[in-house]
Amino acid sequence: MKSSRYTVKKLPAYRAIGLKWEGAYSEVAQLKEVINEMSQRIDELKNPLDRNTQLGLSYHLRPDGFVHYSLFEVNEFEDIPPGMIEFYVPELTYVITHHQKGENIGKSYTDIGIWINEMNYIPYVDPSKAYYDPLPIKHERYPRDRDLSDPHFDILIPIETVTSE
Predict the structure, then answer these.
(1) What is the rounded distance in angstroms from the CA atom of residue 142 to the CA atom of residue 88?
(2) How far apart are CA 51 and CA 42, in angstroms?
(3) CA dist 71 to 6, 26, 51, 80, 115, Å?
(4) Whole-number Å distance between alpha carbons of 114 and 96
């Protein structure tokens, strides 16, 4: 299903390597440092699948903040450099949109949440975990050369498709 702004697409599972950050919303300045550090450490990965696309995967598992992974997609044979972690993302169906430079990021997320609701989709969650946000899992794919003060990037929200009866 597609609208002028949103696409629903199933993407295959993948493996990624990078840095993990966990903190409160009040500590988000530290997250920007972690994202920047991962961007600069790309050369420690021997064969990233796309060195120009950095991944930001956020999981709202805390009432006061979230867990974030700043990663690059890799193949199954990539070694894990010191201080980094590996992360596996399962095959999922996503609502995908592009956040344009100059737009309000909060509004982009609010709009995608409204669209998901209107289309009767349900945000995907791991049933073994507790989440604290209406969009509990947020995946972003951004170009490494983005403007950090006014970025453009793709937003991918995992959803469960609901069949109508």
Answers:
(1) 19
(2) 7
(3) 24, 22, 10, 12, 27
(4) 14
Domains of the chain by range and CATH? 7-160 (3.20.80.10)
Whether the full predicted model's pTM is greater than 0.85, yes or no, is yes
Residue 134 · residue 89 · CB < 8 Å: no
Taking the CA atoms of 85, 91, 94 and 98 in sequence, report the sign of the dihedral they define. positive
Average pLDDT of each block of 10 consecutive residues along the chain (165 residues)?
A: 80 98 95 93 96 96 96 97 98 95 91 94 93 95 81 93 59
Q: How far apart are CA 72 and CA 56, in angstroms?
A: 9
Kindly report the three-state secondary structure assignment for every residue of the chain: CECCCCEEEEECCEEEEEEEEEEEHHHHHHHHHHHHHHHHCHHHCCCCCCCCEEEEEEEEEECCEEEEEEEEEECCCCCCCCCCEEEEECCEEEEEEEECCCCCHHHHHHHHHHHHHHCCCEECCCCCCCCCCCCCEEEEEEECCCCCCCCCEEEEEEEECCCCC
Nearest partner of 155 among 47, 41, 58, judged by Cα: 58
Based on its alpha-carbon atoms, the radius of gyration of the chain, rounded to whole angstroms, reads: 16
Within a 10 A sphere around the Cβ of 87, how many other Cβ atoms? 16
